[in-house]
Amino acid sequence: MTAANFADRAIEALRAKGHPLCVGFDPYPEMIPALFGDARADVGAVEKFFAEILPIAARHAVAVKPQMGFFEPYGEDGYGLARRLCAEAKAQKLIVILDAKRGDIGSTAEGYARAAFGPAPGFDADAVTVNPYLGIDGLLPFFDVAEKRGKAVITLVRTSNQGARDLQDVVVGNRPFWERAADMIAPLAPRLMGESGWSGAMAVIGATWPKEAIRARTLLPKSLFLIPGYGAQGAGPADAVAGFVPGPAGREGGFVSSSRAVLYPKEANEAKTMPSWRAAVDKAMSEAALALRQALSG
Amino acid sequence: MTAANFADRAIEALRAKGHPLCVGFDPYPEMIPALFGDARADVGAVEKFFAEILPIAARHAVAVKPQMGFFEPYGEDGYGLARRLCAEAKAQKLIVILDAKRGDIGSTAEGYARAAFGPAPGFDADAVTVNPYLGIDGLLPFFDVAEKRGKAVITLVRTSNQGARDLQDVVVGNRPFWERAADMIAPLAPRLMGESGWSGAMAVIGATWPKEAIRARTLLPKSLFLIPGYGAQGAGPADAVAGFVPGPAGREGGFVSSSRAVLYPKEANEAKTMPSWRAAVDKAMSEAALALRQALSG
Fold first, then answer.
1. Averaged pLDDT for residues B46-54
2. Omega cis (within 30) before A121
3. Which residue in A191, B207, B213, B282 has the most C-beta neighbors within 10 A?
4. CB-closest option in A111, A115, A172 to B170
């Protein structure tokens, strides 16, 4: 049995919302307000924090993106919490992108794919981020499971950090190296293609580099993008949607992720009560969504 | 407080054993014998299996390498089991290499580093494998924690799979791309250098490519190597130690990892009783160690 195609589900949700906001779930232990407890010592504080974040995200965002690097320091309790949050986010009709940046070969990659996409005790996430360094045989096991289960595989192509220059921008025959990663996944797009014409053979394209996003769009015309780096990492809304193209309901082409700016806005950090904290987070997410919507219509 | 340097601890253990065998903990659910239960349905079977593997590995190997991609499909129970196995292996004086192939940027990489190297609920592993695609700022957080806690960071440089050709072997100015990854970590070797002259700025160099191992040794003269692909992936003992160099107690230079060939040898899979299973695994590990010892003296 083949599940409903991810790209079709995603583009329908994106068009319905009218903006591509994805809320990154990055539990910085020292940034979670004391209202929730001490997240440096207690994963319970992280759980309480996201129990409050989830319904606000469900109002304003299309997707959420739990970042495993922030959950794993809590050991199996953090791992389990991330898994429960994925299930709760799906119950609230959010698309779930597991930001795990996994990458290995053969049967090991298959294990990671089952963990990310499989039913409990798997994450049953809609999409997972993967690293291309090991080559095509590290990616195919993810595509195999994704195809069967209606999921998306999001390959790191051009990331948003300064260090992306070290390897990704090495020039090979007049082209930056990251274009080789794009070339590697382009032929896989048909495997996860929806009736919408979009594919779940997705790519991470950092928002801090709008020129790269435009170039990546020409290399991967059918791939939805995951665009991190919006907000705290310095990219503005226009930069973030540089790789979007005209669609039936306005410009479209992927998800734009914001984490710190919408989880820990200054007003929320200074809030003394839960209602004022909630209002401040609601405002931050609402404004982030609005700015993206305006960038798409402008 | 700075903990004892990893490279010094490792080289002492390697010289004492006289061979570099590392046993990969790859729990293939369908390969774990029915003697232990059904590992496809029950993580308890995996736990029983490794409870028996551990003392045999402690007799024959220098290190063990739990592969997270095989534990994560069991959810938080698998994650927790991997963590307990690390603790038990350390209690049995084995060096613990966490094969997680993590890789992210900034504070996320810091989270993964704390998970891998930190005390409980962290893994407190001696070393962790990391992916270089995101650049130096994805590696430095691992080096920061490793330096403080006497650990090693094992960067994927040239892997053992066929797909390694797709990106790692792309030619850039007459050199394969993987040499750029080697160039990136070479300047970090002094940060994890021991009095032995070896460094915990380690590199994964696939055993199936002995020419690459020799070349990698010239680029990373002080780095201990982790060499996977010995045994089931087809590399022989001489190929596996191609990157080793003369030392005071014979040739040395890293760990050679074998998984399927020593966990699931044919005789063990056919064993009807625990004693005969134990004897078969003992024999497989003993032979793998002996073959490596002979390759080093030959």
1. 98
2. yes
3. B207
4. A172
